[in-house]
Task: structure prediction
Amino acid sequence: MKILMVIVDGMADRSVDGTTPLKSARTPNLDLLSEMGINGIMDTIRPGIRPGSDTAHLSILGYDPFQYYTGRGPIEACGAGIEVRPGDIAFRVNFATVEGDGSVFDKRVVDRRAGRIQDKEELVKAVNEGVKLEGIELILGNASGHRAALVLRGGNLSDRITDSDPKSEGDKVKRVVALEPEAEHTARVVNEFIERSHAILDSHPLNEERAKNGLPKANVLLLRGVGKAVHVPKFHERYGMRMAVIAGTTLIKGIGRLVGADVIENERFTGSKNTDLDLKVKTALKSLETLDFVLLHIKAPDEFGHDGDFEGKKDFIEKVDSAFEAFTSLNFSEICLTVLSDHTTPVSVKDHTADPVPVMIVCEGVRRDDVKHFNEFSVYRGGLCRIKGMDLMNILLDLTGKSKKFGA
Ligand SMILES: [Zn+2]
Result:
């Protein structure tokens, strides 16, 4: 039996006047699936721990985030298509605009997103070819919009250093500082990288042209989210299943690449409100013809949560539900379906909270419960009761006949 895991990011919510976007949305397909399966609530990490999307996804895939999560940098770098190796240090990067005189660290950030620059492949190439650091290999990877990722390799690098991103406009680029004596060499190297890349970017013809056209120059790289990459066992080695990831979000693609999944790219998978839901669902079902495990990720409900937009979240969940009609006619003796949220993003909080999320599993042989509606208020009465994210893969492996017996 194959497994289709559908994660609707931040879909779960807290109660607003006794209801939630998911509860008040019209979701006939989710409700039907709920009725056909077993339901429950899940603490994606542990009760009371507020998950990030990255740590939540690791946990749901059975990778203990306390062991494998070393910061957002390595995951973003994987998402940007860089092959990250154990011992590398990796950063999230923003192309930004600085103005002023003197060293790059004397200049002020006037636009943290360099006018939301899109075409920056030339700039990425110029940095990769032009910046030389003694004994250190550097790889700058392009990502969507103003984003990129940086990997530094070799020479006993440490991730015990601070960010260079001041996080607010009008402030100076921050000099990276070592948080312990062993990291001083790394801090020096990173500061050198920031200076040299700034020199190359500032005088690059593409930036000269941007300036001429009144656009902000993409002339500095702001670094944050540093992490040291560790060895992560591949999904197919761990579970004997080949995995595909269908997502528009770099972070989730990064998780997929980190565990060795096939990440299926399509420009219509945007990781935002304009994503092509039907195409995503179709691609997931198609992928299941050749692969054993498919993770389908839908991002937008989380964005509505962060925006505090109850109605927007509810409406989008209804769109998601329509796209899920295709799941109601799956052959559940061949495919085990699980639908869940990676964390709660309440519109009242506009950020992730630790409230457990709804989860359902539909497959042949599963002990169906009495739950008839897929929402935060009904699923806790279901047969799964309250589980942890790290339990989910074990439960799915058991239901699909892939689990090894513990003992005689
Ligand atoms: Zn999330």
Remarks:
- The CA atoms of residues 365 and 399 lie 8 Å apart.
- The two ends are 24 Å apart (CA to CA).
